[in-house]
Design brief:
The chain has eight helices and 18 strands. By secondary structure, the chain is of the alpha+beta class. The chain has three domains: about 140 residues, FAD/NAD(P)-binding domain (3-Layer(bba) Sandwich); about 100 residues, no CATH class; about 90 residues. The strands form five sheets. An eight-stranded mixed beta sheet has the order 4-5-3-13-14-15-12-16, with helices on both faces. Strand 13 and strand 14 form a beta hairpin. It is globular and about 65 Å long.
Length: about 350
């Protein structure tokens, strides 16, 4: 297996991910299976993969308009093995006393979940892949792709030409640019996301959960929060290689407003900086997966619209069998790339 990286492992947008795992904002059988498997991998990472993903298993707390709605979501998630509880507002406050629950009807708590260090996770996978014989070529961008009679015959890189058997295109927000070299038009647009960091005051509760509210408020190292400003309101299209990675002030202002409202003690916290990154959005915000008729030996895994890292460690296992055997045991009909005309 050859992996071509345009720069280095973890130098792209995945290293800026919120990297939440185990929670299901949208509950389907497929998402539940992926979430449960991903959590199992992170909980047993050294045994399953090797190394340390920086797993902060403080739980993930989301919200529903009513206890009945929370119970329905929890019941659906439990069907595939998720450990999840529906909480009334008193239960939410008891679990997370720092939280201002104004406007919420009930909570949905995934107590064993949380977030990981995405960069650390990727480095651990790369290290083990190299031990198993993977040829990881960093600073090796793809320059040209030769397609003849519906099949990729050559991939030209900055370091030479590769004659592939099968090709997996998983380039995040650069996927549509790489696909264009193969004569394909992927319906992907890159949209702006802001990431802000805040230091917690000394008396803030230890082990705060990931808060999935108006914005994702994620615990980070050394009593910090990391906040993703990814509402797409307004939707701002950007290039995946910005000339200026500074987060716009209006995004910082919004994250500050949200964190101080939802966690009042953070009015005594301290803003520590911000940057901008991007998502690879499809029109329906669902990924482009699988083989496509236009290029028979090309497998797509892109367009995750901000949810890719959440499922990546589990999806990778399913994809490996799919790529080798030509079929998958998951129901991925809503995610198949064939729902779009790509040529």
């Amino acid at each position: 297996m050859i992996l071509c990286e345009r720069k280095t492992i973890g130098s792209g947008t995945s290293s800026m991910s919120g990297a939440m795992c185990g929670q299901q904002s949208e509950v389907t059988d497929t998402i539940s299976k992926l979430a449960v498997r991903a959590l199992d991998i992170y909980e047993n990472f050294d045994e399953r993969v090797g190394g340390d993903p920086g797993f902060m298993n403080h739980g993930i707390l989301g919200f529903s308009p009513s206890v009945e709605a929370a119970e329905a979501r929890a019941d659906a998630a439990r069907k595939n093995g998720s450990i999840v509880s529906a909480l009334d507002i008193a239960g939410v406050t008891e679990f997370y006393s720092e939280l201002n629950v104004e406007g919420y009807g009930a909570g949905v708590l995934y107590p064993r979940t949380g977030c990981v260090d995405s960069y650390q996770t990727m480095q651990a996978y790369a290290q083990q892949a190299r031990k198993l014989g993977a040829d990881i070529r960093e600073f090796t961008p793809v320059k040209r792709i030769d397609v003849r009679k519906g099949k990729i015959e050559a991939v030209h890189t900055s370091a030479g030409t590769i004659a592939p058997g099968k090709v997996v295109l998983a380039c995040g927000p650069w996927s549509h640019k790489v696909a264009k070299a193969a004569g394909l038009r992927l319906p992907i647009e890159t949209t702006q996301v802001g990431v802000s960091f805040y230091r917690q005051p000394p008396d803030f509760a230890d082990r705060p959960p990931v808060l999935s509210a108006e914005l994702a408020i994620i615990p980070w190292y050394n009593k910090h929060f990391r906040i993703l400003r990814d509402t797409r309101k307004p939707l701002v299209r950007v290039q995946p290689d910005p000339t200026d990675a500074v987060c716009p002030q209006w995004m910082v202002d919004h994250t500050t407003e949200v964190i101080e409202h939802r966690l009042p003690k953070m009015k005594r916290g301290r803003f520590q900086g911000a940057y901008q990154t991007c998502y690879d959005d499809t029109p329906d915000l669902k990924p482009l997966m699988g083989y496509i008729p236009e290029v028979q030996n090309l497998f797509l895994d892109c367009g995750w619209s901000g949810r890719g890292f959440k499922f990546a460690v589990a999806m990778g296992e399913y994809n490996a069998r799919w790529i080798l055997n030509g079929r998958t045991e998951l129901d991925l009909a809503p995610w198949l790339a064939t729902r779009y005309a790509l040529s």
